[in-house]
Design a protein that fits this description.
It is a single chain. The protein is built from 3 helices and 6 strands. The chain has 178 residues and is an alpha+beta fold. The chain has a single domain, classed as 2-Layer Sandwich (Alpha-Beta Plaits). The N and C termini lie far apart (39 Å).
Amino acid sequence: MKFNPQKHHRRSIRLKEYDYSQAGAYYVTIDVQNRECLLGEIVNYEMILNEAGEMVSEQWNALLERFPSIELDVYQVMPNHSHGIIVVIENVDPQNIVVQNKKPTLGDIIGAFKSITTHEYILGVDNKHWPQFYKRLWQRNYYEHVIRDETDLNRIRDYIQSNPANWDEDGENPNRIP
């Protein structure tokens, strides 16, 4: 199929002219492709991770080793998506920044996370009989929000932490009764 810019145009959801490598806090949501519940389940308003969900959580925490210019705040794996806050820090030893001699962007960080977790999930499919996925593990993009102030940060932290308790009303829940 020949590329047709009218048909194959992908609109960016990122802020124009914004430098996503600059210091600040970013709220991200990453969805499993087709919102399949591959990472665990909600039982009594608590998220119970399966092995795949545990792997996703471990790889999120491993981002600290790969990207010394970040800190991780609140994070929550859900059955078919995850929410987290990534803080890009200002003062980092330049010798620790290895991504092509530049500070990584939020896109670089999320791209690495999605790539590594996809690879690990495929190994789980092959070796541990995890459910297969169709074409890609994660949806093509991710949602991000630049956290503006302490009030915004606390509101988002509360949302992330209470997400399992609100699963019945969550728009990401494929079994939600409208």
